């Protein structure tokens, strides 16, 4: 059984993100699994802090992007998602020149709020960041 109420494809989502922050950071949705949204993001000059590691803010953008998309995809057409809180814990650095993968899954999908968790991993599989996004569900 799938969570999704909207029949979107990764290509459609990526095209929609092309001219906003997610697109500018190279975030790409790679898979819409029955219970999760998967994505990748490079780590280059756009994402690095002064010491050449992935900036925590870029991880938060990745998490909020996936969490909001996932939340919207579970809602009927007359509802939207609005992010109201995001937090992130950074566990391991990611060097400039590498890339990260992310998997976003629901922790709670209520009538008025959702909580989505995103795990961001380095190429070697090590957990780099875990982040939670709380969204309010509102009428469009």
TrEMBL record:
CDD domains: PaaI_thioesterase
Keyword Protein biosynthesis recorded: no
Classification via InterPro entries: HotDog_dom_sf, PAAI_dom, Thioestr_dom
UniProt xrefs under SUPFAM superfamilies: Thioesterase/thiol ester dehydrase-isomerase
Keywords, in A-Z order: Hydrolase
Annotated Thioesterase domain residues: 51-129
Record carries keyword Glycoprotein: no
Stated family: Belongs to the thioesterase PaaI family.
Protein name per UniProt: Hotdog fold thioesterase
Lineage: Bacteria, Pseudomonadati, Pseudomonadota, Alphaproteobacteria, Acetobacterales
